[in-house]
Amino acid sequence: MKEYTVDPKFVISDEPALRSLFEATHTLAALKSQDALDTHAQAFIRRSPFVCVGTQGLDGKADVSPRGDPVGFVRILDEHTLAIPDRPGNNRLDSLANIVANPNVGLLFIIPGFDDTLRVNGKASLVTDPDLLESMSVNGRSPRLAIVVRVDEVFMHCAKAFRRSHLWDPDHLQDRREMPSLMNILLDQTTGAPSDDDEIRKKDEDLEDEYRKTLY
Fold this sequence. Notes:
Pfam families: PNPOx_N
Structural class: alpha+beta
Domain Pyridoxamine 5'-phosphate oxidase N-terminal: 38-158
Number of domains: 2
Oligomer: single chain
CATH superfamily of the largest domain: Electron Transport, Fmn-binding Protein, Chain A
Region (Disordered): 189-216
Protein name: Pyridoxamine 5'-phosphate oxidase N-terminal domain-containing protein
InterPro entries: Pyridox_Oxase_FMN-dep, Pyridox_Oxase_N, Split_barrel_FMN-bd
């Protein structure tokens, strides 16, 4: 595939140039931003089993990490503060290291079946308060830490992206088997995937076993 090169004359380099491409936003969109978790935002978060956490390090590199758990896993501590449990992962710690360096985070809450989403922006800290962690335990296992977010901005996001993508439409579900398995992809990208189907199948089974043992 030929490398794509951006022609500088087509690059938008300042905000006035950007805004000149679009009509002015309507009043409701400008006013919807809140500085606290009102009853609607709290109700949305309590229904959500999934949130994407956007972070950025001091070097400017950005990262988005998915977090999922039983419905309502993100704790609302007060109208300005929420807490996200950090469950076992691969220990790359990309998001957590970014938060240590730069506390600004963006959250996107998703509810299965809902086309609209909830966006929350704020400043995060990594907290190891035993009482808080114990309150977030699942199957008798508490997280090692929680991401506590002080909310600066919260607002609902419209349904256009989810409707364009048909994300929840069963007629648009794709067959996972049409691509190699996760283990096959990871091995192919790193040490090399084995050509033996039985060996790949065994590695897939080992991964599923690890999922069962290490979700919490």
